[in-house]
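worker-3 :: picked PKD-like family protein
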Amino acid sequence: MKYIINWSLILSLLFIFGCTRDLGNYNYKDINEISIEEIPSQYAIYKVDTLNIRPELHFSMDDSKSNQYNYEWKVVGSGTSAIDEVIGTTRELNYPVDIEPGAYTVYYKVLDTETDLIWKSSFILNVTTETTTGFLLVGENENKEVEVEMISMLNSDTLILKDLMHENGLPRIKGAVNIVHTGGYFNPTNIRLWVMGETGAYYVNSSTFIGDSQNTFQNMSFTTFPSNRERIPVEIAPHVASNSGGTASSSYRVVLTNTGDAFFCNLNMGEVYGNPINRSSANSTETFQISKYIFYPPGLWSRFILYDSDSDRFVISNGLTATFMNNLADGPSDIFPWNQSEVKRKLIHGENTRNTDGGSNNGNSFALMRDEGRDFHIYKFYVTTSPEKRGYYPIKSEYSSLLNQASLFAFSSSRSLLFYSVGNKLYAYDYNRNNERNVLVKEFEEEITLLNCDIQTGNYFDIYVGTYSEQKKGTLRKFILSQNPNTINMEETADLGWTDLSKLKKMYWKNSND
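worker-3 :: tokens ->
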């Protein structure tokens, strides 16, 4: 009974205290709730512009007491954009942006001084310069001097930047060849923006385009192989392969020069180039001439293929860190040969695409070949450690006459089409087996100087055409290729045409603050 009596006592006490009157203060009253609206989740702005934000505040009670509230706008960044700074203390923000390009978070606080309650909102602020994002254009003026322009893009707006190679500390270059931005890297010292011409090539600051006459490939190359002329870059890989500005590799780089040489660099060891790799072994002192194309899948970097112009054959890098090139072996039943000596074909044009036929997820490469009879052939292949031949398409002889007059070529990533230009006429050849056809797509008023099937921004149906006349100067138009396989039509994007440009030769996507 002892345990029963104790439990009874406890229960009795709980009952007594539970019935005691609650004398606490429960005099509830409403509080002033604030909702913050009209602040989007993201803003993008140029560094030189002013950020104006007018939030819409809703108060559950009377907001007539303007001195009842304190406001704070704070910008916070991390990494290379590290900052924690109050940029405004008023209800609306009027902030001349003077922070470095990068991604930040902006916090907005409203303090009710009567209740000490804080109401918050935040958004992402992407600060950029005019030269951060857009298409780089390289062309020539009337004196054949190299001009660099840029279609600067922020949100849906575009701005044309001109004369970017004027008064930038460099001598004027003649004969536009190429322009390449090497993409963003964790180590900013590996980032380069190369402007390449026939008489010289320099890397420049990718934001200001300021350069130095010492910014040449010659000063980055330490080779024991002599050359009777300066080695000037004409092509660099890998290219930017995504809208975000990334490439297939941030560790390796290949440079082709006007002397027909190829150089390889392991960027983890610094951007220093040794002896040329266009030779048959690491010990060989003999080099062979190579063409101006580097074949590799845009979405993956493992091996790359070059074209030996002396022996007319495709050759592959000997490893991930290349020191020489190996011959590629042909099988008796292969659809086309790597060695062109027997079929007597030569490389006319080469291109890497986002075509995925045959399971080539990172993009097939194409080669346009011409034989001794001046007929044309298309090779499609996938570059891996063991390259795979994906397709062979002989072009009908009836179209050879037009193709032999062509000056520019471009392979589509999204359709079985080879675009080419003859003067002011743009043609498309459909190489799809049993459905071959040649179509005059469009006749322009001016000469076509640039053809580009976009593989850098993710818009694989986009085609850019540059034209030029002395009266109208350079014009760049954007077209969208029809996805209907039964037709070959392109629709011009009316609100995306740019005029009064130089005589365009190349275009290249850039999305990097460096």
